[in-house]
Write a structure and sequence with these properties.
The protein is an alpha/beta fold and 295 residues long. It folds into two domains: 141 residues, 3-Layer(aba) Sandwich (Rossmann fold), CATH 3.40.50; 123 residues, Rossmann fold (3-Layer(aba) Sandwich), CATH 3.40.50. Helix content is 27%, strand content 27%. The strands form three sheets. Strands 10-9-8-11-12-13-14 form a seven-stranded mixed sheet, sandwiched between helices. Helix 4 crosses helix 5. The longest helix is centred in the first third of the chain and has 17 residues. It starts with a strand and ends with a helix. It binds ribose-5-phosphate. Ribose-5-phosphate binds next to strand 11 and helix 6.
């Protein structure tokens, strides 16, 4: 088995290759003069099984094309079995038609991935579990829950907070594993402007060390507002655990300046180039969770 990677998350691909006791294969990726992607697998020996690692993040459109080209090149080299590791499934946020005239983007991306004819897909914490239904290929849907529980079990937390009803799917398993109550925030997002408004809270937060759990951070608006709201309700400390950090421009600084005391994320998306304060931000690797599912 060999591990190949597009350019989206080389550090994670390296870790997965290491765990599988193999080297990351050589893939050269650059651009033709007209900006189209040029890719070359520079390996003499090609095994019949391959793992392709690519998160559809940061420049998602480019990463999706890189992925498709990489899989095509492997097929042409005679690789028979390909496992696609897509830790962040780009476009999975648009998993519904919210307003007439919108695309079902998540379904479109599922169709594109399946058209490459990979054999199976491994992904982590989809925004909506029902997205799995858009795939007819075997799809292994992993969660960062156990990693967060392991990391936070001795942090003297008093309760978990779901920053919206959607986040309950990540919050409930962690609350169960840590035997803690859940507080739910109700929030409304303006579909036009993207602005978030907190409507209220169900549960008691005064004097508590709270852990907010969410699947991803984009603009940071949800979490920053939730932290402000909880501190107004006299929460003692605010810790956040979110699987995917999309590293949208400027969000790092905003999160650090916010009322969040500590932030835990995973490495589903490459953070290597980011200027991150590791006192504030702790990055937990998802590599072993993924590797365990590769055979
Ligand atoms: C909402 O449904 C998501 O799970 C996140 O809470 C949210 O969308 C993250 O986006 P942002 O960081 O822009 O508020």
């Amino acid at each position: 088995m060999q591990v190949f990677s597009g350019s989206s998350n080389l550090p994670l691909a390296h870790k997965i290759a290491q765990n599988l006791d193999c080297k990351l294969a050589k893939v050269e990726i650059n651009k033709f003069p007209n900006q189209e992607i040029r890719l070359w697998i520079n390996e003499e020996k090609i095994d019949h099984k391959a793992v392709v690692v690519q998160s559809f993040a940061k420049e998602p459109d480019r990463m999706i094309i890189e992925f498709c080209l990489l899989v095509d090149a492997l097929k042409r080299l005679g690789v028979k079995e390909i496992t696609a590791v897509i830790p962040w499934m780009g476009y999975c946020i648009q998993d519904k038609i919210f307003r007439n005239g919108e695309p079902l983007s998540s379904r479109v991306i599922a169709d594109i991935i399946q058209a490459t004819k990979v054999n199976e897909i491994i992904t982590v914490d989809l925004h909506n579990e029902t997205t799995q239904g858009f795939f007819s290929l075997p799809l292994i849907h992993l969660s960062a829950t156990n990693l967060f529980v392991e990391k936070l079990k001795n942090n003297n937390l008093d309760c978990l907070v779901a920053p919206d009803v959607g986040a309950l799917k990540e919050t409930i398993p962690i609350a169960k594993a840590m035997n803690l109550p859940i507080v739910i925030i109700s929030k409304k997002r303006d579909l036009q402007t993207g602005k978030v408004q907190i409507l209220g809270i169900e549960g008691d937060i005064e004097g508590k060390n709270a852990l907010i759990v969410d699947d991803f951070i984009s603009t940071g608006g949800t979490l920053i507002q939730a932290a402000e709201f909880l501190k107004k309700q006299k929460a003692k400390t605010i810790t956040v655990a979110a699987t995917h950090h999309l590293f949208v421009e400027g969000v790092e600084a905003r999160l650090e300046k916010s009322l969040i005391d500590k932030l835990y994320i995973t490495d589903t998306i490459n953070s290597e180039d980011e200027k991150v304060d590791h006192q504030f931000l702790d990055i937990i690797s998802i590599s072993e969770t993924i590797t365990k599912k590769i055979d």
